[in-house]
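Q: How would the structure tokens look for this protein?
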Amino acid sequence: MDKLQQTAEAALERLMQEYGTRVLRLVTLIVKDRDLAEDITQDVFLKVYRNLSRFRGESSIHTWIYRIAVNECKGYLRSWTFRNLLPQAWIQKAGTMSTEGTVLERAARDELVRLVLQLPPLYRQAVALHYYADLSIAEVADVLGVSEGTVRTRLHRARQQLKKQMDTREGWEWNETNG
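A: Here is the predicted structure in token form.
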């Protein structure tokens, strides 16, 4: 029994090393609070550990982990705490920028992330999974438990809202590479 537990713990450690940062990023995008995202990410990997023996392999392991993460976020977003307490502000890490171009690029990326965080939760989830977690439309549909058409619609509507927001800001130009 001890050997099996070691194997499960080793598997969990490997999964945390491989997917921990990506899950934390995804959860942070959904709940908009870094500290809370760290707590939820711990809960995600606790559930992964508890249910690893039940993983049937019907989807890829990363899809399964992302589904757990999204479900944990949904549970939190439905909770009394979220609805009745103000979430903390998004905490950004300060860094040194070497060139003006890097600074401008970072500012544009930060602005885009800020706009994504303002999207309704259903759109934000689809955007986070597709663009930030690099899941295919089919994988996003599997994680969210919806059809591929629903994912495409949510992504399209999210892009429309982002485009509308960007069009009102000076310096943004919408093209195929950022759409």
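The longest helix spans residues 2-31.

The domain at 99-171 is CATH 1.10.10.10 (Arc Repressor Mutant, subunit A).

Upvote if useful.
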